[in-house]
Each structure stands twice: as structure tokens, then as C-alpha cells.
Design a protein that fits this description.
By secondary structure, this protein is α+β, with helices and mostly antiparallel strands. The chain contains eleven helices and 19 strands. InterPro entries: ATP-dep_AA_Ligase, ATP-grasp, ATP_grasp_subdomain_1.
Length: 415
């Protein structure tokens, strides 16, 4: 076993972009980094400063556990284990439990992964949540309609990015949906009409280290169905203050003292705020980039260090005053699969757009792009919330993307 000179951290990596540059978040010469990465993520890692990098087929628990055990036996117990992706949070927690490493337990992480658990914890603190129902094989559409109401949202208990989410308008469509999913992995919840907001930031010692509140333009579910999606940072004022205060109550109920969060909240037409869900991670889409560009904070780096119990990269008083900004995403072109034939950018026409990432002619979309490989990504800054919102709507109206269906290859015949 090697001499134990500096703390050792095991990192689960699935990123293939700057989010995987973990060496930027620490002083590599003052700790020992060990990487378990999927093949696509290898190129972004600083393998030269790592003590060991192991490429694995996937980051499932059963795949990484024997490798992590071997590393611990060879180099000594880990002082921390990190998986920043939504899909690696629970695996990292299970590894901590199996290897005796400090940090969030599986039970703690499940409160941020399981939508039934998280709503129960928040509701138990007296905070408004949608009516919801845990599913099993005995639950019928009629029972859901009676207990939750219609329309209703059927969603995976531990999903992300609206993948697998279904809105059912009546009992017939709900029953069809129930018959096509594994009910043990799903829950039903009330469809809440109103505006949706997301709150992003880092908590330290039970207080906000940084917090921002944003309003969606359209919804994540609509984006999954093919509509554009946008987000605009809220100006300071009563609405923002109320949403931030509500978020603090929710995070207190979930006992998050130190760590990142991405929380979604609905405001009913009556003005009541309702908790929707929360992730124990920075927000997706362009959230991390907007915070880096406008506020100078690296949410991924702060999440990495908070997970390990290390001090923040940036002190709270360095963030300065509120900045107006936002982002927009254009969906993958329909029908799927499609091939891009032409793009008409807006960077030079809409002054609030400072970054535009668009596909090239020939790029193919098959519906698996998530929030990254999409029809267009835009980052904005402006004078205030109103100006940015208007610019987001202009992008949705003026950006052009032409595509053609990708036809299946004709079957080859032999004679």
C-alpha cells in the first residue's frame, strides 16, 4: 500500500466537456485523485495529475464497486467519493457506504432522487406540494383520478430532464400510460397550473452561499415534446424574495446544510407557491454556464468541493450585485431522426445573445440529445428581466433551423 500523504478522492465521471475538469476544483499536488470514467469522458480528464484512471463500460454500482475496492486496497481508504451527475449521486453514496468513506449516505441522497420521498419530507414540514400517489400494480386510473385529480402527471420517481414524463388528460389515456410503465418506478402527481420557476445555488452551513431564481419560458415537459425552452433570471423584488425564502424552507426540510441544489417551484394562479422537485446537483441546460459568465461562480466546482467537505472556491461576498440574464434552447428538429440542412443564426441580430451554439448542416438528431445536443443553445445577458425575456421570445420566433427526415436504409437483398 502506498504511503498516505494526502487525502484521496474517487471521482465518477460521465462528462466529456469542461464539467469533467475536476483538477481545476482542487490543488492536484495536495490531494490524490482517482477517476472511474466512461470511455467518452476520458479525453477531458487530467490523467497526468491523477493517481490512477480506470475506464469502465458504465457507472452502474455493480460495475464500479469491484474497481473501487481494488483502488482502496491498493492506495488506502478514500477521504471522499464524488459523482456530480444526477445519475451518479446514488452510486457514489452506495460506494461511500460500502467502503466506509465520509459524506452523504444513500438514505440522504434518496430524498433528492426519489420524488415520492422528497415530497413526503417537504410536506411533513408543512410546505405545499402537489397531490401525489405512489404507484403499484393495484393502482387504477380511476383511483388516481379520485385521489389526485385530472389532468395528472405520470413521472419516473428518479428521472431527470422530463424523460418518461406523461401528462394524461382523462382516465383512458392515464390507464394506457399506466399499462406501459413499470409502476414501481413511477408516481402520479397533480398537474399544477401556473408559472414554473427554478432556483439554483450552493448552500453552506445551512445558509445560501449563492442563490438565484429564474422563471421558465415554456416548460421542460413541453421541450421534451418538441417546443423551445427558455429561462430568465428574476429581478430583485417581492416575487424573487418569496421564492428564495420558500426554497430555504424546502431545503431545511430536506436537511441540506452543505451542497448544490436545483429546485423547481410552481406558483398557482392564486399566488400560492408549491414545491415540485429538487436535485442535489447544479441545474442542467445552460444554468452552470450562465452562473459562470454572469457571476463568476463555477457551480460544478462548488458542488465538487461541497460534496467533499472542502471550503468554497469563491467567497459569497465576491459575487456582487444581481445580473440580468438567461438562456434558450431549441428542440431537436422533428420528425426524428432528422438531418440538418440549413441554420439561420441570431447572434448578430439579437444584442442580448452573447453565446450561440448551433448545429451544422449534416448533423443528425435522433431524440437522444437531452439538453446538450439540441437544435440550438443560447446564452443571454441584458439590462433587466423584461429585456432578457423579450430576447428569449425573439430567439424562439426568429431562429431558423431546416432539417429533413433521415430515411431508413433500404434492405439489401441477395440472390
Amino acid at each position: 500500500m502506498a504511503d498516505r500523504l494526502e487525502p484521496g478522492y474517487l471521482v465518477l465521471n460521465r462528462y466529456d466537456d469542461e464539467f469533467g475538469e475536476y483538477h481545476r476544483f482542487v490543488e492536484p499536488d495536495r490531494c490524490r485523485l482517482f477517476y472511474l470514467t466512461v470511455p467518452d469522458g476520458l479525453g477531458v480528464l487530467d490523467t497526468e495529475s491523477a493517481w490512477e484512471t480506470v475506464v469502465v463500460d458504465d457507472l452502474e454500482y455493480d460495475t464500479v464497486l469491484p474497481v473501487a475496492r481494488r483502488l482502496a486496497e491498493q492506495y488506502g481508504d478514500f477521504d471522499g467519493i464524488v459523482g456530480l451527475s444526477e445519475y451518479d449521486l446514488l452510486t457514489a453514496a452506495r460506494l461511500r457506504a460500502a467502503l466506509g468513506a465520509p459524506g452523504w449516505t444513500p438514505d440522504f441522497v434518496l430524498a433528492f432522487r426519489d420524488k415520492v420521498r422528497m415530497k413526503h419530507a417537504v410536506e411533513s414540514a408543512g410546505i405545499a406540494v402537489p397531490r401525489y400517489l405512489e404507484l403499484d400494480d393495484t393502482v387504477t386510473a380511476e383511483r388516481v383520478a379520485a385521489g389526485v385529480g385530472l389532468p395528472v402527471i405520470l413521472k419516473p420517481r428518479s428521472g431527470a430532464a422530463s424523460s418518461g414524463v406523461v401528462r394524461a388528460e382523462d382516465t383512458a389515456s392515464l390507464q394506457r400510460a399506466l399499462d406501459t410503465v413499470d409502476r414501481a418506478d413511477y408516481e402520479c402527481e397533480e398537474f399544477v397550473a401556473g408559472d414554473i420557476f427554478h432556483v439554483d445555488g450552493i448552500r453552506r452551513d445551512g445558509k445560501f452561499h449563492l442563490v438565484t431564481a429564474s422563471g421558465y419560458v415554456n416548460t421542460c415537459l413541453e421541450f421534451a415534446e418538441g417546443k423551445p425552452l427558455g429561462s430568465v433570471l428574476l429581478d430583485p423584488g417581492p416575487l424573487r424574495d418569496g421564492i428564495v425564502g420558500f426554497t430555504a424552507e424546502c431545503l431545511d426540510a430536506l436537511a441540506l446544510d452543505d451542497g448544490p441544489f436545483h429546485l423547481e417551484v410552481m406558483r398557482r394562479d392564486s399566488g400560492e407557491l408549491v414545491f415540485l422537485e429538487v436535485g442535489l446537483r447544479p441545474g442542467g441546460a445552460e444554468v452552470a454556464f450562465i452562473h459562470r459568465d454572469l457571476y463568476g461562480i463555477d457551480l460544478m466546482g462548488e458542488a465538487f468541493r461541497a460534496t467533499l467537505g472542502l471550503p468554497p472556491l469563491t467567497q459569497a461576498d465576491q459575487f456582487g450585485e444581481h445580473k440580468a440574464g438567461g438562456w434558450a434552447l431549441m428542440p431537436e428538429p422533428r420528425p426524428l431522426p432528422s438531418r440538418v440542412t440549413a441554420v439561420r443564426p441570431v447572434l448578430d441580430r439579437i444584442p442580448e445573445v452573447y453565446e450561440e451554439i448551433v448545429p451544422r448542416a449534416g448533423d443528425v438528431f435522433d431524440g437522444s440529445g437531452g439538453y446538450g445536443h439540441v437544435g440550438g443553445r443560447f446564452r443571454l445577458r441584458g439590462d433587466d428581466e423584461s429585456a432578457v425575456r423579450a430576447a428569449v421570445l425573439r430567439i424562439m420566433d426568429e431562429y431558423g433551423l431546416d432539417a429533413e427526415p433521415v430515411l431508413p436504409e433500404p434492405e439489401r437483398t441477395t440472390t
